[in-house]
Amino acid sequence: MTASYPALRLRRTRTSGWSRALHGETVLTPADLIWPLFIAEGKGVEEPIASLPGVSRWSVDLIVERAREAQALGIPCIALFPNTPRALRTDDGLEALNPDNLICRAIRAIKDAVPEIGVLTDVALDPYTTHGHDGLVDEKGYVLNDTTSAVLVKQALVQADAGADIIAPSDMMDGRVGAIRSTLEGAGHVNVQIMAYAAKYASAFYGPFRDAVGSRGLLKGDKKTYQMSPGNSDEALREVALDLAEGADSVMVKPGLPYLDIIRRVKDRFEVPVFAYQVSGEYAMIEAAVAVGAGARDALVLETLTAFKRAGCSGVLTYHAAHAARLLGA
Questions:
Q1: What pLDDT, on a 0 to 100 scale, did the predictor assign at position 4?
Q2: Gyration radius (Cα) of the chain, Å
Q3: Is 94 exposed, middle or buried (0-12, 13-18, 19+ CB in 10 A)?
Q4: What's the pLDDT tens digit per position in 145-155?
Q5: Ranges of each domain in the chain
Q6: Global pTM?
Q7: Which residues are catalytically annotated?
Q8: What is the 3-state secondary structure (H, E, C) of 47-103?
Q9: Who contacts 294 (Cβ-Cβ below 8 Å, separation ≥6)?
Q10: Which residues are CB-contacts of 239 (< 8 A; sequence separation ≥ 6)?
Q11: Looking at the domain covering 27-329, what would its CATH class be?
């Protein structure tokens, strides 16, 4: 080798495993994960979801077991989504305000059995409406912002009363974060967090989720009048700024991998806790790749989750949470 070769060789620090660990810039742990779980009516019920291989809906008693599993794996928080029976779905989504509805029963059961685990709940009306929209619609099918927000405030309070630790409004109505925060404060829920779905895009990656909550086929039209256009980046910063000003404790970008640039911009601009949702379509793509031998599940899961952390996420909602936690704890 000639004497003119550079003295610095970047490969030196990659030579051995201990050195790669020592020089690692991004560290992923089970504490970075939130596990989304789907709830079904009944007892002792597990309903596999065909479009989400390896994911099921669970009855409340078995959701409690998943909460215990999460705690044992070091996952700090679970996110709950109900599959409301069709008979209880209405145009106005009134079941969302029932203090004994499926999600509220699950919250109470989890908090009784595993009080140390965090419980995040979704605030939106799509699991409760006959039309599949996140809010109330007029005669033309347009989602009404202010009347929807008034219902979401009541929904958030019902969930907080049941014991939810984090309220996560996913509806994308303007002004709803401030209204929810004011109501929670007034009701004495001063320590209930709000994780706002601040930059939620009108994405093609949500299909399996709609299967999971039973809204597939119900949606009339699309959600483009309230969810963001995939081509918009500056608008995401405006959405985040509004939600933070209204009292959000943290913000979410959804979907995940196709929007890593948004995560990075939000983190750099606001320096607040940013979360990403690795959505159902992203999960399904990994599982499809594994099924045809195009990739190894363990490596794909850890690489994608590390990408979220590297982009600036404080944590990630992922259906692979339990699997990843096992890998990370091995």
A1: 65
A2: 21
A3: middle
A4: 999 999 999 99
A5: 27-329
A6: 0.95
A7: 200, 254
A8: EECCCCCCCEEEEHHHHHHHHHHHHHHCCCEEEEEECCCHHHCECCCHHHHCCCCHH
A9: none
A10: 198, 199, 228
A11: alpha beta
